[in-house]
Specification:
Helix content: 10-25%
Structural class: alpha+beta
Distance between the termini: 21 Å
Radius of gyration: 17 Å
Largest sheet: 9 strands, antiparallel
CATH architecture: 3-Layer(aba) Sandwich
CATH class: Alpha Beta
Oligomer: single chain
Number of strands: 11
Number of helices: 2
Length: 193
């Protein structure tokens, strides 16, 4: 399951919910007050995609991008479960580090201000992930301002997939509740899919 990347990302045109064919992850049109914008595929097979979301109200403005892509490949030939789990934990940590560097490359001057483990629940199952919080000054909604950006990475969803969230908002806004509602209310595995 190796993506063959396109020279230019391509939009996926869809109304309503979108089900990512390889992973069966559902990409809803709305989640907890966030509205979906563009869905983009980055490779010819549609293994690596993103969806943009926006929450705008009088009290806050949060921009979110969600990525679904193949998790780092862990090869196991009859290894004991604890060895496989250890290898996956190591690969997931490396993936998280890559994504943090990516944020800092795209946003020069971004400072890492917090990093910790996180958990997401769905259907009685627990998904372990990592959270990194960055702060930087950049143009947002037409004005330069201090921003906060939260990166969440969940690896090995359904054993094969990584799901990454990036939320960006003005630093002076309280966005934690809205972000947690977005993460917890989005059912990756919508019933009937």
């Amino acid at each position: 399951m190796q993506p063959h990347y396109l020279k230019q990302p391509e939009p996926i045109t869809v109304e309503g919910r979108y089900v990512h064919p390889p992973s069966k992850i559902t990409i809803p049109e709305t989640v907890a007050g966030f509205w979906r914008g563009a869905i983009v595929r980055y490779d010819s097979g549609g293994l690596d995609i993103s969806a943009g979301y926006d929450l705008r109200s009088a009290a806050r403005h949060i921009v979110a991008t969600v990525y679904v892509y193949p998790a780092p490949r862990a090869v196991s030939i009859g290894s004991p479960p604890e060895v496989v789990a250890g290898a996956r934990a190591h690969l997931a940590a490396g993936e998280f580090d890559r994504r943090k560097r990516e944020v800092q490359q795209v946003h020069p001057g971004a400072q890492l201000v917090e990093q910790r483990d996180t958990v997401r629940m769905e259907g009685g199952q627990s998904y372990s992930g990592k959270l990194a919080v960055f702060e930087y000054d950049e143009v947002f909604a037409g004005s330069k301002m201090p921003l906060r950006s939260c990166l969440y990475v969940f690896c090995y969803v359904d054993s094969k997939w990584a799901i990454e969230y990036r939320f960006t908002y003005p630093k002076d806004q309280d966005a934690e509740k809205a972000i947690q509602e977005f993460i917890q209310k989005w059912n990756w595995h919508e019933a009937g899919v």
